[in-house]
Write a structure and sequence with these properties.
The chain is α/β, with parallel strands linked by helices and 222 residues long. 39% of the residues lie in helices and 23% in strands. It is built from eight helices and seven strands.
């Protein structure tokens, strides 16, 4: 059984193959449906909500992967944008993607989502696409992303969840054994984690085994 750290931190072939697949529209569409019953167009529409972000907002993209969300940015995006990932391979590919798209003003940072190197309430938007199911401690990741969000800030996330079907759960087990997935969670567990992190679920939809949602950070209860 491979470890998550080894897979995403050191195995260039796995990271590169995944990044190629998600950036190629045809491969992405076929692979997403075959593996997870997902209509990949819904995923890309969700990611494209980045275009609605107010100029001057501070955005944390974790994990940024190879820059999948960058296609929703204009060269003059006017955002304070941080691309954060554990994998040096992914960060390298993200930097290449930004250069190809002519994007300026993106900060690249390597690190652990379970211990984000930022003070509390620093970001207006935290986007976490296809990352939570790969993290070794998804609940801790939720807590950390909530911590660095400003009150009123948005967490926008997509992830593969348990309990969407026997076939999907079997695929999750296989991916965990290969070191591609972490423990992941059910929707019910995740909703509990959001509540514990003072995040209010405001929008959600599911396609196959992929759950897409937005949650807003609430004012702490006295």
């Amino acid at each position: 059984m491979a470890s998550l750290e080894q897979t995403w931190g050191h195995e260039r072939l796995v990271a590169s193959a995944y990044d190629f697949a998600v950036h190629n529209p045809l491969v992405r569409r076929i692979g997403a449906f075959a593996l997870w019953g997902l209509d990949a167009r819904l995923l890309m529409d969700y990611i494209a909500r980045l275009r609605e972000t107010t100029a001057g907002s501070r955005v944390l993209d974790v994990p940024c992967g190879g820059g999948l969300a960058f296609a929703s940015l204009q060269p003059n995006h006017a955002l304070d944008y941080v691309a954060f990932d554990f994998s040096p391979v992914m960060l390298e590919r993200a930097q290449q993607s930004a250069q190809q798209l002519g994007l300026k003003g993106i900060q690249f940072q390597q690190g652990d989502v379970g211990a984000l190197p930022y003070e509390a309430q620093q970001f207006d938007l935290c986007q976490c696409y296809n990352g939570l199911h790969c993290f070794p401690d998804p609940q801790k990741a939720i807590q950390e992303m909530a911590r660095v969000l400003k009150v009123g800030g948005t967490l926008r996330t997509t992830l593969v969840v348990k309990g969407a079907g026997t076939r999907y759960d079997a695929m999750i087990c296989l991916f965990q054994w290969r070191g591609w997935f972490g423990p992941t969670c059910t929707r019910a567990a995740l909703e509990g984690w959001l509540k514990d992190a003072n995040l209010k679920l405001t929008d959600h939809q599911q396609s196959g085994a992929l759950w897409m949602f937005e949650a807003v950070k609430q004012t702490p209860t006295p």
